Amino acid sequence: MVYRSLRGEALNWRKGSRSQSGSDCVEVAAAGPAVLIRDSRAPAAGMLTLDSAQWRTLLRAARNGELDGR
After folding, report:
1. In this predicted model, what pLDDT tens digit does every residue of 7-38 receive, in sequence order?
2. Which CA distances in Å does 5 have to 11, 33, 34, 41, 42?
3. Is 35 helix (H, G, I), strand (E, B) or coil?
4. Any idea where the domains of the chain sit in the sequence?
5. Dmax of the chain from CA atoms?
């Protein structure tokens, strides 16, 4: 599900420590039981909302190199 904004919520967006100097980054924020993901270069473009199981699946795939596109 993609949301354009969450009115009235102050979100703490974070980037991975390895991507602080890079320009191709995503940012994540916790919003209750959900994890929000957005493009750091286009934060107004919207965000993707994942539940905890979807977030764990995404992290597992990233750690296993399944998203490397090689």
Report:
1. 556 889 888 766 656 666 889 999 888 999 99
2. 11, 17, 14, 16, 13
3. strand
4. 2-63
5. 41
